[in-house]
Design brief:
single chain; 8 helices; 15% strand; alpha+beta; globular; three-stranded antiparallel β-sheet; two-stranded parallel ribbon
Length: 178
Amino acid sequence: LTLAPVASRAGEINDILAQMELEMDRRAELFRAERFGGLPAGNIDIYNQAVGAEKSMPRIFCLVDEANTFLADAQVEARVRDLSRQPRKFGMHFVMAAHDWRSDGGIPRGISANFHTRISLRVADDTSGTAVLGNPKMGKAMMRVTKPGRAIVFLDGRFARVQLYRLAEAQVVAMLTG
């Protein structure tokens, strides 16, 4: 289920980010209004479990490919920096991909640090792998990858070597909406 059109310009992504900001504010208000043992819910799973199926909220994913293209716009960068940090607990998530994670026009460290899960596939230089994974040793390791789909995942402070597989579009849609 797509809630927003595919953006191809900074102005269009700004419109989508504005919608996400409104949704984040709406969800934050709902979290504050519902009390569970005197406290607001700490995350979307606790909230949904407590309010039941009729009031539960689905997770929302904002998928951004070629992110460095959009983040060259200062307004987009500021919004993404804020939105990639705040709304996770409300069930709103960013998935960002870029060929050039950090250089001129790349993904800034302030945004990169907001992602608790990062994946690096083969890179041509250790700077890119290091920028994504936050670790020079792992960045260099990504230069030596020879098999398609091999990656290193950084997940909440830990590294894991994994094999990724290409999924058909219908499978991806089913996973995101299921």
